[in-house]
Design goal:
The structure is a single chain. The chain has about 240 residues and is mainly α. It is built from eight helices and two strands, in the order αααββααααα. β1 and β2 form a beta hairpin. The relative contact order is 0.16.
Length: about 240
Amino acid sequence: MRSINPGVKLAALIVASLILSVTFNTPVNLAVFVIMLVATLASPGTNRRGLALAMLPFALTAVALFVTGLMYGSGGNAAAAIETDAFGQRTLFASDWTTAAQLASRVLAYGGLGMAFAFTSDAFELVMSLMQQFRLPAKFAYGVLAAYHFFPVVRDEYGEVGLALRARGVRVGPLSPRRVVPMLAHALERSESLAMAMESRGFEDEGARRCAYEVPLRARDLAFAIGLNAAIVVALVVVR
């Protein structure tokens, strides 16, 4: 997964999400989730702890939607309704298992697709791929890269201002103006200097420009995009 062209990977996963969005096939949704999760874990350099933490909101949402589908489903068969008791009280009345499974599995499928892209793609290579293969304007692409690399600077500035205030014996909250205003002032100063530097280097010019870093487009990238979506379509046709 990590060696796939990130721009093509993004396009392929977006198409796969759109295909799944117009269907309600629980087995296919679960299969997509499991395959994407295994592929992500098998990719070298994957932060498994970060992946587990990132998947936690999707898992909680899936559980919540599953319970909601059980309790408030309206398309089920009343004769097949299920009632469970715990500690002498009715806790759940399930009238539609299908709806509950569809809602939960769809969230898991989207989570698997999103995490597969997020944990196997490099932001710099993605922007370069969008610029080289998808004709993203260079001025916008480099602006996105500059903003992306600017966030760590703002985070470090926030910490430095907090340490400076603590050294002076000033106790402030996380969003105190004494802490936020100096940080924003330095951020604006740096952003202005960055904008002037980009303009002085010709980033306003719309002419042709060469890239020092090229992201190749290979046959296996297209095979991944076509194969992934073709497999999903075939599974939707075969699995009823």
